[in-house]
Write a structure and sequence with these properties.
650 residues, alpha+beta, Immunoglobulin-like, Neutral Protease, domain 2, Serine Threonine Protein Phosphatase 5, Tetratricopeptide repeat, 3 domains, five-stranded mixed sheet, 18 helices, 21 strands
C-alpha cells in the first residue's frame, strides 16, 4: 500500500505485568443481544522464541479473535449492494477449524447490524455483541460446539461503514451511475464483514454479489471482464489471504487486457487513458518473477478508481486498487504499480503477523519496487527513486518526533493505537534502506537468493520481526554473530533512529538538478535553467530543495517558466502547492482549492492541510476548503484531516 495515516488513543486494560506482548482489545460489555453480560480478557504472555521455520500461534493486539483456539479457514459471502440505502445486506458463512474443542467463537465487527447466527446452516446460535470500543469496534461472541463446522451470520452494514465509500453519480467520471469502493487495511474489514480481522489469520473465500443491472462488480478474487445482464456476480479466491485484502468495487467500469494474465479496469471514460499509462505492466510482472519466483495469484489486474480513493495504491490480490493521480500522461508515475505488484510477494504471499511488523510488508516491498524499476528503467533511475525515498524518510522521522522517537523503530510497539494512524513512511523507507545495506554487505547475488528462498519458504504464511531476524541471521549471515553486530541488525529492527551504517545513496540523474538549483540560488532566471528531459522525480527534487530565500517574486518567475500551478501532474502540483503555502504565493490558491476538492489521496491532503493549519489565516482557508471537500473524501482521509484542522461537524 501507499501511503500512511494519523494517531488516535483510547484506554484498554494495561498489559499484564512482565508480559512481552502488547494488550489486546480487552474487557468489553455486551449490548444485551442474548444472555448475560460477557467479558473478553486480554491474554498476553511471554513465550520462547519461535523457530524460524514454524508458523506461530499468536494473539493480535488489534483483534478480539482467538485464532489459537478456533480459526476461520474459509469465508462464503452472499451480499446485496443497495445504493439507495448505502448498505450491504446478506450472509457471511465461515468454515471453522476448532483446534482446542472450544465452545465459543470470537469475531471482529464494527458497526454491523447482526440479525441472526446459525450453526451448520440449521440451529440458531446464541450470540453476544459486546459494547463498541473506539477503533476496534465490537467483539461478536458466538456459542458453538466442538463439532461445529460452519457459522453463518445474517447482517447488514451501515451507511457510515469506515471501509466503504459510496459515491454519487456526480462524484464519478461518467456522472451517470454511482460507485462503491472499499479500503480494508488495516482493521476496517470488520466494518463490512464479520471476521477474524488480523493479518495473522489467512483464509480462502468465495462470494456472490447482487448489484443493480448495468453495473460491473469486482473483488480481490477471480473477476469477469463484462457486465452480467442480471447484476449477479460470482467470485472465488482459492489462495489463502488475510482479511485486510478483502476488497469490493461496483460501478460503471470497463476492462482492457494487456496480455493473457494482466489488464486494467477503470471507469469507462478513463479506461483508454489508463490502458495507455499502464501498458508496461506485463514487463513488470516478468521482472518481478525473475527476481522473486513465480507469481502465485493467477491474474494480475489493476483497477483505477475514482479520485476519492485515499491511497496511491492498495495491493488487493489479483486486483490492485490504484489512484487516478498516477495517470500523468507520460508514464512517469508507474513505479507505484511496481510497488503494488511487489506486494504479491512481500505482504500478500508472506504477510506481517501483526501491524507491529508492518515494515515486513512495506520495507521489503519498497526495496523490491526499486529493483523492478531498475530492471525496466536502469540503475540510475532506481537510484533517483531511492534518493527521493530518503528525503521522504527524513520527513517521516521529523513527523514522528525525531530520531529518539520509539515510532522510528522498524518493529513497532503500537499498543492500543490505531495501526492506520501509526504505520507510515518509516516502514517503507527505513525498511528499504536496511535491505539495501544487507544487499551491499553480502552481494546482490547472495541477497537475491536469500529473498527468493524467503518467499518460497514462507509462502501463504505470516511473519513477525523476531522470526524474520532469526531466519536472516541463519540463512543470509550464516549464524555469524560478529557480522550481525557489525551490520547492526538488531539496532535496525528494534531501536529507534537510523544506525550510523545507513547507506548513502547518490543519483547521477539528480546531479544536473543540483546544478540548476545552484544556478537559481545565484540569481539565474527560471527561464534560463536547463531542464530538458526532466521527469517527475527530477522536478520533485528541484521543488523540495529550492533555496530557503525563495520568495513570491521568484515563485512567480518559476511559475511563468514551468507552469507549475497549472500542471496536471499530481505529484509535482502537490509539492508546488506546499511550497506556495510556505511562501504565501497566493496566485496558487485557486489551484490549491481545485486540487483539494478534486482528489482524496491522503499523501497530498495531509501535508497541505497541515501547512495551512500553521497560521490563523491558513487554518481559516483550510476549514473553508475542507467543508466543501470533506463529503467527497474516504473515511480514512476524513479521520486524518478532522484531527489536523480540529474539525467539528457543523
Amino acid at each position: 500500500m501507499r501511503q500512511p495515516r494519523l494517531l488516535l488513543l483510547f484506554l484498554l486494560l494495561p498489559a499484564l505485568a512482565g508480559c512481552t506482548g502488547t494488550p489486546q482489545p480487552a474487557t468489553v460489555k455486551a449490548k444485551g443481544k442474548t444472555g448475560s453480560s460477557a467479558r473478553i480478557v486480554a491474554e498476553t504472555a511471554a513465550a520462547p522464541a519461535t523457530p524460524a521455520t514454524q508458523q506461530p500461534v499468536a494473539r493480535d493486539p488489534h483483534s478480539f479473535s482467538h485464532p489459537d483456539e478456533v480459526v476461520v479457514e474459509h469465508l462464503k459471502l452472499d451480499l446485496t449492494v443497495d445504493f439507495t440505502k448505502k448498505i450491504l445486506t446478506g450472509r457471511a458463512s465461515l468454515r471453522l477449524h476448532n483446534k482446542t474443542g472450544a465452545g465459543v467463537l470470537f469475531l471482529d465487527t464494527h458497526g454491523l447490524d447482526i440479525r441472526k447466527v446459525l450453526l451448520d446452516g440449521a440451529a440458531e446460535a446464541k450470540f453476544t455483541l459486546h459494547d463498541e470500543q473506539p477503533i476496534f469496534g465490537s467483539a461478536l461472541e458466538i456459542q458453538i460446539t466442538p463439532a461445529t463446522q460452519w457459522v453463518s451470520i445474517d447482517y447488514s452494514t451501515r451507511p457510515d461503514a469506515a471501509a466503504l465509500q459510496w459515491l454519487d453519480p456526480e462524484q464519478t467520471s461518467g456522472k451517470k451511475l454511482p460507485f462503491l469502493l472499499s479500503q480494508s487495511e488495516a482493521i476496517l474489514a470488520r466494518t463490512w464483514v464479520p471476521c477474524q480481522d488480523s493479518p495473522g489469520v489467512r483464509m480462502t473465500y468465495e462470494a456472490t454479489l447482487r448489484v443493480p443491472p448495468g453495473m460491473l462488480a469486482l473483488m480481490s478474487a477471480s473477476n469477469r471482464a463484462q457486465k452480467t445482464a442480471d447484476g449477479v456476480y460470482q467470485f472465488e479466491m482459492p489462495q489463502r489471504i488475510p482479511s485486510y485484502l478483502l476488497a469490493i468495487a461496483v460501478g460503471d467500469m470497463t476492462f482492457r487486457a494487456f496480455d493473457a494474465r494482466t489488464g486494467v479496469y477503470a471507469e469507462t471514460p478513463v479506461t483508454e487513458a489508463a490502458a495507455w499509462e499502464l501498458a508496461d505492466t506485463p514487463k513488470m510482472v516478468d521482472a518481478a518473477e525473475k527476481l522473486y519466483g513465480p507469481y502465485q495469484w493467477g491474474r494480475y489486474d489493476i483497477l483505477v478508481l475514482p479520485p476519492s480513493f485515499p491511497y496511491g495504491g492498495m495491493e488487493n490480490p489479483r486486483l490492485t486498487f490504484a489512484t487516478p493521480t498516477i495517470l500523468a500522461r507520460d508514464r512517469s508515475l508507474v513505479s507505484l504499480i511496481a510497488h503494488e505488484l511487489a506486494h504479491s510477494w512481500s505482504g500478500n504471499l508472506v504477510t506481517n503477523a501483526t501491524w507491529n511488523d508492518f515494515w515486513l510488508n512495506e520495507g521489503l516491498t519498497t526495496y523490491a519496487e526499486r529493483r523492478i524499476m531498475e530492471t525496466l528503467s536502469g540503475k540510475d533511475y532506481a537510484d533517483m527513486l531511492a534518493v527521493i525515498g530518503r528525503q521522504d524518510l527524513d520527513r517521516a522521522i521529523e513527523d514522528a518526533g525525531g530520531l529518539a522517537s520509539k515510532d522510528t523503530a522498524l518493529r513497532l510497539d503500537i499498543g492500543t493505537r490505531d495501526p492506520d494512524e501509526v504505520t507510515g513512511d518509516l516502514a517503507y523507507e527505513k525498511g528499504a534502506l536496511f535491505l539495501r545495506l544487507l544487499e551491499q554487505s553480502v552481494g546482490r547475488q547472495r541477497f537475491d537468493a536469500f529473498l527468493h528462498s524467503y518467499f518460497k519458504t514462507f509462502a501463504f504464511q505470516s511473519m513477525d520481526s523476531d522470526r524474520f531476524v532469526a531466519y536472516l541471521k541463519q540463512n543470509l549471515l550464516g549464524n555469524d554473530e560478529a557480522l550481525a553486530r557489525k551490520l547492526q541488525v538488531d539496532a535496525w529492527v528494534y531501536a529507534p533512529g537510523l544506525p550510523d551504517n545507513a547507506p548513502v545513496i547518490h543519483s547521477t540523474l539528480l546531479d544536473q538538478v543540483d546544478q540548476q538549483l545552484g544556478a537559481f540560488a545565484k540569481g539565474s532566471p527560471a527561464g534560463q535553467l536547463q531542464t530538458q528531459g526532466w521527469t517527475t522525480n527530477h522536478w520533485l527534487h528541484f521543488l523540495r530543495n529550492l533555496p530557503a530565500a525563495t520568495d513570491k517574486t521568484r515563485m512567480a518567475d518559476l511559475d511563468a517558466a514551468f507552469h507549475f500551478t497549472d500542471t496536471g501532474n499530481s505529484e509535482i502540483l502537490g509539492e508546488w502547492l506546499l511550497r506556495s503555502l510556505r511562501t504565501n504565493y497566493d496566485v496558487a490558491w485557486p489551484a490549491l482549492e481545485r486540487f483539494l476538492t478534486s482528489q482524496g489521496r491522503r499523501k497530498f491532503l495531509s501535508p497541505l492541510y497541515t501547512e495551512m493549519a500553521k497560521t490563523p489565516a491558513g487554518a481559516e482557508m483550510g476549514l473553508r476548503i475542507y467543508e466543501k471537500a470533506r463529503p467527497g473524501y474516504h473515511s480514512v482521509a476524513r479521520q486524518s484531516i478532522d484531527k489536523i484542522l480540529s474539525w467539528r461537524q457543523p
